[in-house]
Design brief:
The chain is of the alpha/beta class. It contains six helices and 13 strands. The strands form three sheets. Strands 3-2-1-4-7-13 form a six-stranded parallel beta sheet, with helices on both faces. Strands 9-10-8-11 form a four-stranded antiparallel beta sheet. Strands 5-6-12 form a three-stranded antiparallel beta sheet, with no helix packed on it. Helix 1 (20-31) crosses helix 2. The longest helix is centred in the first third of the chain and has 17 residues, at 46-62.
Length: 233
Amino acid sequence: MEWNAPSSERSPEFDAISNLEAKSRVANEAAGRLRDGDVVGVGSGSTSLLALHALVERSRQEGSRFRAITTSLEITMACNEWGVATTTLLDARPDWSFDGADEVDPEGNMIKGRGGAMLREKILLASSPERYILIDESKRVDQLGDHALVPVEVVPEAVRLVESLLASELGAREVALRRALAKDGPVITERGNVILEVRFTEITRDTNARVDSLPGVAASGLFFDFHPTVLCA
């Protein structure tokens, strides 16, 4: 028995995306890398959604096929809506992957995770031999943390411990639980964890390593040493 036009499968409303024209240009540029039979890692967020749509259009025009490894339920649902076959890292390795970013410094280090999917995004990028980050000019910064807070995904039982350690051992200036907009209480990730939003006085490679080492941290939004190719509109 098949589902009949589930209401959960609706095409995204692209008009609500900020900087739509610039993001569309860079999305089309990324889609130009598609080769027939590729396995493509698809990140989360509005720019990734636009790039996925551009891949779908390109594959239809050229008669090519590709499979996607997704980083979030949102992207998986978009793949279902647009007829894109999906697979997982248990079954395939991506030929290349793309994602967006909240901030990118001159060395290609990033803050990511506004959509709360940084754990799967980090695993997917690490698994990819080719990595593309799609941004507009507003995401370039001289120093990470200039504008964006650092999201830290935490096992719920450890949230008080991690809050305390971030302040006492890492010198965090601000630590706050990310609150949901359409539900009471905190945002819950697809892994059942919560997200702390953190502001540091300075972010270095050592900051990245120390945050990741805290007991109860599943992943942070600091992405160091991934050396992506940055495509900037």
